Amino acid sequence: MGEASEGVVFPSLDDIVALNRVHIGKSGGDYTGRDNLHNRNSLEWVLDVIQYPPFGIYPTISEKAAILAFTIIKKHVFFDGCKRTGMSVLEIFLDQNGFFFDATDDNIFTVARRLASTNDKVYSFEQFEEWVRRHMNLQIPL
After folding, report:
1. How many helices (H) and strands (E) does the chain have?
2. What's the whole-model pTM score?
């Protein structure tokens, strides 16, 4: 998964769609149409904004990872599997860019549900990005 740009590895839209298909196939759910995309525009937008940030928004790896997952989950980019896909993309993005994500599965599940079921005033992007930052650790090569 991913294309490198200025040293940062980014997922493609096709990578994310394929990951969503895997999640639906493994754990169940409905896969609609050829790509299960419900809100393609939001997914295309977030992929563009993390690679070519206007006015320097989302400059850090944690912000890029967080806005990617946040958008997949909050904007319901898929008909089904948004929480699973969003959190998996977050972990893969961090891993491919040299970070280990140490949140427990239970914590990831709780945060994903909170994102999906609350408005931005209850659980904001800033709070989510802080959670991501707290749980990412630089990988140390052996």
Report:
1. 6, 4
2. 0.92
Residues facing residue 101 across a β-bridge: 136
Sole residue written with tokens 């749980």: 135
- Give the pLDDT score at 56: 83
CA dihedral 47, 51, 52, 55 (to 10 degrees): 100
Q: What residue type is 100 in one-letter code?
A: F
Nearest alpha carbon to residue 38 among 72, 83, 89: 72
Of 93, 88, 132, whose CA–CA distance to 2 is shortest?
93
- The full set of domains in the chain, from first to last, is 13-138 (1.20.120.1870)
Report the pLDDT value the prediction gives residue 3, as an integer from 0 to 100: 57
Residue bearing tokens 């096709």: 14
10 Å CB burial of residue 72 (0-12, 13-18, 19+) is buried
Question: Left if phi > 0, otherwise alpha if psi is -120 to 50, otherwise beta: which for 130?
Answer: alpha
